[in-house]
Amino acid sequence: MKKRLVQNLSANFCQLILNQLCGLIIFYILSTGLDKNSFGLINLALAILLAAFNILSFGIDQMSVKKIAAGEAPHSVLSIYIIHVVGTGSIFYGLLLVCGQLFEHSAQLYSLLVLIGIGKLMIYFSTPFKQAANGMERFKLLAYMSVISNIARCCGLIAVVLFHILNLHTVVVTFIAGDAAELILGIYLFRNFTRLSLLIKWDGSKYKNLLRESLPQTGVVLITSALARFDWIFIGFVLSSVKLAEYSFAYKVFEISTLPLLAIAPLLIPRFTKLFKQQDTRGDDLLFFLRIEMIVAAFTGLLLNVCWTAVIDNLTAGKYGSVNITTIFILSLCMPLLYLNNFLWTIYFAQGRLKMILSSFIITFAVNVVGDIVLIPLFKNEGAAVAFLAACGTQTIFYLLRNESPQLAKSWRPLTICTANALISGFAAKMLFHGTWQAIPPAIIFYAMLLVITGQIRFGDQKNLTRLLSR
């Protein structure tokens, strides 16, 4: 069990490293090679399309993982899910083609939506196979399937840059080719690794049952999809594509910095599902695992802020560093909250508390939307960051209030202590050392010392971690 868990974690982490590396190269080429207006338009089109296709999943993606992890036949779940994505995806793209009049004042944006939408439709068609691999805990297969698109797009854009033909047209062609490659090669890999029959068979009763079971999660998906990109879309339409380019750059770097969370999150759903099904859980172990997550989250935020201006301005020739210093500071405060929210969400999802999760996302979405509508016109990108921070904090408070485990009621402690330690360390290092590179080592040392003093790092933690990994 220990060997398999370590292999799963390693495979997932490796694919995330590769994906993030390729994504970072793609992101860097686009942000520095295109003007801010073009970069903003691409991000606006991607925000709209990703939100739309996430909504079209109706929450079936997460429910499929849970069902397969709980022991249901993978081929049965996969068959229903494939029919769902092909049907809903085709309907959506057909509607997009006939709704051009809605974008008569944004012809360039509409063209990007139609063209990039072809690629995102291919990615959407590939999701059943990736979710099935996740539910089966075939993380090595999932890793292979998940890196295809980014590798193809990364290599394509590098070639475009080398031939000095980088423009919106070549970017769109590269995106479509990479997304189509993920669908074709993903299906091929899935069939060869799993040997599952891909015989598609319609079963109306099973599909209705799956939709009914996914209904609370559908609401969550609707809200989280809008929540994830509402600020981007609002900034793009209310402010400008240039301001969106600046905000999306800061937000993308913030997303990349959550790499450890991205590595851990896919492993938690099937593992927690089995633990709660077997009633094999201990509150102390969960709290220990959470404490480790908070240490990592706060440390990532610390490094992000200490390094930001010098590194980003050098990399982007002054385009996105100083202009985003306040925005990235506010967003980095969200990082420990995101870790805690994901941790608690996974526990509640494994316990089947979907209606409670839906309620939390409704409240969170309302806070974020109201915050964006009020704050973005007044404070622009910084207002969007504050609204996102308020939404994350609201969700954390809601989850803690609805917690039923006495041990997890203390989960706010590592969050606040680790965040405070990171803030103190960062401010102290910057006050005492003026250069960025001179401030990094002291900031890390101060943070480690404060973690020991405040009891967040303890003797015996290594043994506890080894014991948990071996279960």
Helix content: over 70%
Q: How many separate helices?
A: 18
* Terminus-to-terminus distance: 7 Å
- Morphology call: globular
Round the Cα radius of gyration to an integer and report it. 22 Å
Give the mean pLDDT.
84
The helix-strand sequence is HHHHHHHHHHHHHHHHHH
Strand proportion, as a percent range, falls in under 5%
Low-pLDDT parts are none
Q: How many E-type strands? A: 0
Structure characterization notes:
It is a single chain. The chain has helices at residues 2-33, 36-56, 60-69, 74-98, 107-135, 139-162, 168-194, 204-238, 241-256, 259-277, 283-315, 325-332, 335-350, 354-379, 381-401, 412-432, 436-453, 461-469. It has 471 residues and is mainly alpha-helical. It has 2 domains: 1-202, no CATH class; 216-471, no CATH class. Helix 2 (36-56) packs across helix 9 (241-256). It is globular and about 65 Å long. The relative contact order is 0.11. The model has no long low-confidence stretch (mean pLDDT 84).
List keywords for this structure.
471 residues; mainly alpha; 2 domains; 18 helices
What's the short story on this structure?
Helix content is 83%, strand content 0%. The protein is an all-alpha fold and 471 residues long. The protein folds into two domains: 1-202, no CATH class; 216-471, no CATH class.
Ordered list of secondary-structure elements with their pairings:
Blueprint lengths: L1 H32 L2 H21 L3 H10 L4 H25 L8 H29 L3 H24 L5 H27 L9 H35 L2 H16 L2 H19 L5 H33 L9 H8 L2 H16 L3 H26 L1 H21 L10 H21 L3 H18 L7 H9 L2
